[in-house]
Amino acid sequence: MVPGSLLSQEEESAAISLEDNTDVFQELFFEALKQKGIENYGKAINALLKCKQLETNNDVIDHELAKMYQLNNQLVLAEEYAREAIISKPANLWYLNTLVEIRELQGTDLKGIKEQLPYSNVQLKENLARIYFEKKRYDIARDVLKDLRSSKFTRELIGKIQDSTKQENPVSEELPGIENIKEENPVKVLTKELNSLSEKGEVDLLNQKAEEAIETYPAQPFFYYAKGAALNDLREYKEAVEILMVGLDFVFDNDELLNKFYGELAIAHTALGETTKANTYLSKIKNGS
User: What is the pTM of this model?
Assistant: First the structure.
């Protein structure tokens, strides 16, 4: 029988060890983010790999490694970690979008690796259809929708695809009960509305409407920018940083919007007293926008 005092010492020692590991993990993770911020992807990857040794089943680390290898143009490794992340969390939209982006950089889509994914997950398939729709890859979005049962989601998305392509297509015949939906492009409508609210200075309503827009169209970066700007105006700087960082992952080939993101991040970090981070984002702003 283990004496009570010895058992207590062992428990205390184990708790201290766990706490030490947690501290090391956090230090490594923040070091990785710091290196990412200054575009030193090799060092960021090394820090994340050390995090992976401490927590082998951490899907957040898998996703960050995928993004980092992608930025470092190591696409095979990027895809490997992106798959691991989505296997851990099949319904996670951000993880799936990263995997789609990495496959596109390799000139392909997810068809060839469906068997390696938890493709039976309905939320994964809905997310995938939405992602390809937002990318205007309507043919692939239709193929994904064929793998889903008819529902409000499939009917609405097919209607939007038909409206976007401005022509009839056979998908409505393959999914009974689906009707054509003719409507003005909803993303453009929401963008105009948010810009109008911003110009009028209606910050609370802008914050609310931007949140609703994100829920409906989670892959549209402008909506994250609008909400981040609103949060800054409301002096909710930490929340602003969080939402802007999420939105950044959806910005591609749009320097003007990138500059707006960087500007709002600089504002938020300045207000938080984080001048180094603020200066980092200010230095990223490109001229001529």
Answer: 0.53
CB 110 within 8 A of CB 135: no
Q: Rounded to 5 degrees, what angle do the CA atoms 93, 234, 246 make?
A: 20
For residue 179, give its domain range. 120-183
Counting every residue written for the chain, the total comes to 289
63, 98 contact by CB (below 8 A): yes
The answer to whether residue 9 sits within a structural domain is no
Sign of the C-alpha dihedral, residues 254, 259, 262, 263? negative
The tokens 């984080």 sit on which residue?
A: 274
Confidence band for 10, pLDDT divided at 50, 70 and 90: very low
Q: How far is Cα 247 from Cα 219, in angstroms, rounded to an integer?
A: 8
pLDDT tens digits along 126-174: 999 999 999 888 889 998 998 898 888 888 898 888 888 865 644 444 4
Report CA torsion sign: 144, 148, 153, 157.
positive
Q: Give the integer Cα–Cα distance in Å for 144 and 122.
A: 11
CA angle at 84 for the pair 116 and 54, rounded to the nearest 5°: 155
Closest CA to 80 of 92, 98, 55: 98
Q: CA-to-CA distance for 266 and 273, rounded, in angstroms? A: 11
Count of domains for the chain: 3
